[in-house]
Design brief:
The chain is an alpha+beta fold. Helices cover about 55% and strands about 15% of the residues. A hairpin with a 3-residue loop joins strand 11 and strand 12. The radius of gyration is 33 Å and the shape is flat.
Length: about 575
C-alpha cells in the first residue's frame, strides 16, 4: 500500500468518527422529545437530519475516491438547503457550516470547494425564500421548535468533533517519516561482510551477487566480477590496470572522492561509503543513476570495492521528503484554519448565550415552564461550547506557533486571589472549599504573561473542583525565593493511576477518572498548562495517586529569560 493510500484510509476513519458523533447528537435530541410526548411530530425531521451521517458512515471505507467525497459534501449541502426552505433561514443556515467541516477531513482543496458551494447554496436559498419562489411547507410547531434548538447545538458538536478528528492527522505524518526511515535502512544494506576473505582472493569477490572490484594501491582495477563488467563497464573482458573512476565514467569530482575514500580505508583500516552518480550506459548520456560504493581495505594494500544501484531508493526517499514537507505545510495551514474557525464561532455562540440569558432572566416577560427549561439548556450548552472553543483556539495557536506571550510585571498574589474568585461559583455549586495559602516573605512580583498565568491557575482549579467530592478542600499554595515562584494546587479527589499520569500533557488525552464525571472536556486543560508553563521557561509537575488526590506544581522564573 502506498503512503498516499495510507493517508486516504485515515481520512475514512476521520469521516466515520465525525458521522457517528453527528448521528449520536441527532438521536439524543430526538430521544429527548420522547419525554415531552412529541416524538410522533419530530421523528421525520430527525430521520432526514441523520441522512448525511449515514451516507458518511457507509462511504467511509472508500473515502479515498473522489466521487465518495463529492457525494458526502453534496449530501450535507442538500440537508442545509432543505432545512432552510422547510423551516426558516435563521437559525437553519448554520447547517451550511457542516460542509466545510466535513471537507477538512479530506484535503485542503476540498475545504475551499465546500465553502464556495455552501455560499452559493445559502445565497440561492435566501433569495428563493425572499422572492417567494418556493411553496410554503406545512410544519408543525413542535417540529419547528425542536429543529431550531437541535440544529445549532448539533452543528457545533459536529464541528468540534471534526476539529478533534483532524488533530489526529499528525499520525499520518508519522507514517510517512517511518516509511522514509525504512527506505533509508534498506538503502544502507551492503555486502561489506563478504569482503572478509583473504586479500586478492577472486573467489571471495565472485561470491558477492552484485558488482565487485579489487583495486590495487594505485587505485587501478586488478579484478572485476562478471556482473560488474556487464552492469557498469559494458564489456565482457576487462583490460586490467585502468583507473576505476575512468572505467565507471565518474565525473572528476566523484572520481577524486572515490580515490580519497580508498586512501582513507587503507590508512585507517575501516570501511568507507560514498554515493556517486554514474551514466546508465554509453548510449544514454543524459541519464544518470545513483550508486552506493562501499570500500573495504585489503590486507596487502589496495581495497575491495562494492557497487549497489540505489537510484530507486534515493528517488523514493526524495519523494517522501517532499511529501513530508507538504504534509508539514498542510498541518500548519489546518492549524491556522481551525484557529480561524474557532475564533469565528465565538461570535454566534456569544449571541446564543446572550439571548438565552435574556430568556432565563425573563427580561421581556414570563416563559412557560418548558421554554424556561430549554433556555437553561441552551445557555449551559453554549457556555460549555464557548469554553471548549477557547481551549481549542489556544492549543491551535500554540501548535501553529502563533501564540505569543505579553510580558509585564505584576503581583502573583493578586492573580491567585482573582482566579479563586472567578471559580468560586463553580466551587460553591460543587460544594467544594478553596483555601489559599500565600507566603510572600520575599515578595511575589514576577515578569510573565498575566493572562497566561491566570489561565494556568483557572485550568488547574477547574480540574481540582471537577474531580473533588462534596465537602472536600482544595489548597492553593504560593511561595517564592529569589529566582522563582512556586504554585501548588492540591486536592484530595479521585486522582490518577500511573498509566493516566503518562498521558498528562498530551493534547486531547483524558484520564480514566474524567469518564466518571458529568462535565466532560476536550482533554486540553493540562496540555495547555504544560505548554504555557514551558513557554515561560518554567516547570510543570503532577503528583497523583488513585483515590488519594492530586498535587499540581508550577515553577515560574521571576525574571524573563534573556533572548
Amino acid at each position: 500500500m502506498s503512503t498516499l493510500s495510507i493517508i486516504d484510509k485515515f481520512a475514512g476513519r476521520r469521516v466515520r468518527l465525525a458521522s457517528i458523533i453527528w448521528l449520536a447528537a441527532i438521536a439524543a435530541a430526538a430521544l429527548a422529545t420522547f419525554f415531552a410526548l412529541e416524538l410522533d411530530n419530530v421523528w421525520p425531521f430527525a430521520a432526514a437530519a441523520m441522512v448525511p451521517g449515514l451516507v458518511g458512515l457507509v462511504l467511509s471505507p472508500v473515502m479515498d475516491r473522489e466521487w465518495a467525497q463529492v457525494t458526502v459534501l453534496f449530501t450535507w449541502i442538500a440537508l442545509a438547503v432543505l432545512a432552510v426552505l422547510a423551516l426558516a433561514f435563521l437559525p437553519m443556515a448554520i447547517l451550511f457550516l457542516c460542509a466545510p467541516a466535513i471537507a477538512s477531513l479530506f484535503q485542503r482543496e476540498r475545504v475551499v470547494e465546500a465553502m464556495v458551494l455552501s455560499a452559493i447554496a445559502a445565497g440561492g436559498s435566501y433569495y428563493a425564500i425572499y422572492y417567494g419562489w418556493v411553496p410554503k411547507f406545512d410544519t408543525n410547531a413542535a417540529a419547528a421548535r425542536w429543529s431550531e434548538v437541535t440544529a445549532p447545538v448539533a452543528t457545533i458538536i459536529f464541528m468540534i468533533s471534526a476539529l478533534f478528528a483532524v488533530s489526529y492527522s499528525r499520525r499520518d505524518e508519522a507514517l510517512i517519516s517511518a516509511h522514509g526511515a525504512a527506505l533509508n535502512a534498506q538503502a544502507g544494506h551492503t555486502a561489506q561482510d563478504v569482503s572478509a576473505g583473504g586479500a586478492g582472493d577472486k573467489a571471495v569477490l565472485d561470491i558477492y551477487p552484485g558488482a565487485a572490484f579489487r583495486v590495487n594501491k594505485q587505485h587501478n582495477v586488478a579484478y572485476a566480477t562478471a556482473h560488474a563488467k556487464s552492469a557498469y563497464l559494458y564489456v565482457d573482458e576487462l583490460i586490467e590496470g585502468r583507473d576505476l573512476g575512468n572505467l565507471l565514467d565518474l565525473n572528476p569530482a566523484d572520481s577524486d572522492a572515490v580515490k580519497s575514500a580508498i586512501a582513507l580505508a587503507e590508512a585507517s583500516g575501516e570501511n568507507q561509503r560514498i554515493i556517486c552518480q554514474i551514466l546508465a550506459n554509453p548510449e544514454q548520456k543524459n541519464k544518470e543513476r545513483a550508486v552506493q560504493i562501499d570500500i573495504a581495505p585489503a590486507q596487502d594494500a589496495g581495497a575491495f570495492v562494492y557497487l549497489r544501484d540505489v537510484t530507486g531508493a534515493m528517488d523514493e526517499v526524495e519523494r517522501l521528503r517532499e511529501q513530508s514537507q507538504i504534509a508539514d505545510a498542510d498541518a500548519r495551514d489546518k492549524d491556522l484554519f481551525f484557529a480561524g474557525v474557532s475564533h469565528e464561532l465565538r461570535t454566534p455562540l456569544n449571541a446564543i448565550i446572550g439571548f438565552s440569558d435574556m430568556m432565563r432572566s425573563r427580561l421581556f416577560g414570563p416563559l412557560p415552564g418548558k421554554y424556561s427549561e430549554y433556555a437553561d439548556l441552551i445557555h449551559d450548552s453554549g457556555q460549555h461550547m464557548l469554553d471548549l472553543l477557547g481551549d481549542v483556539l489556544d492549543m491551535s495557536k500554540i501548535e501553529a506557533g502563533k501564540y505569543s506571550l505579553s510580558y509585564d510585571r505584576f503581583d502573583l498574589a493578586d492573580v491567585v486571589r482573582s482566579s479563586i474568585k472567578m471559580v468560586r461559583p463553580q466551587a460553591d455549586n460543587a460544594e467544594v472549599i478553596i483555601e489559599p495559602e500565600i507566603h510572600d516573605s520575599v515578595g511575589l512580583l514576577i515578569d510573565a504573561d498575566r493572562r497566561a498565568v491566570r489561565q494556568i491557575l483557572l485550568n488547574l482549579l477547574s480540574n481540582a473542583i471537577k474531580f473533588s467530592d462534596k465537602g472536600e478542600h482544595i489548597t492553593v499554595k504560593v511561595s517564592a525565593n529569589e529566582e522563582a515562584v512556586t504554585l501548588k494546587v492540591i486536592d484530595k479527589g479521585r486522582g490518577m493511576n500511573a498509566a493516566d499520569l503518562k498521558q498528562v500533557g498530551k493534547p486531547y488525552a483524558q484520564a480514566g477518572a474524567a469518564r466518571m464525571v458529568d462535565s466532560r472536556g476536550t482533554g486540553l486543560g493540562l496540555s495547555l498548562v504544560k505548554s504555557l508553563t514551558e513557554m515561560h521557561d518554567g516547570e510543570f509537575d503532577l503528583d497523583s495517586a488513585l483515590d488519594q488526590g492530586t498535587t499540581a506544581t508550577i515553577v515560574l522564573p521571576r525574571e524573563r529569560a534573556s533572548t
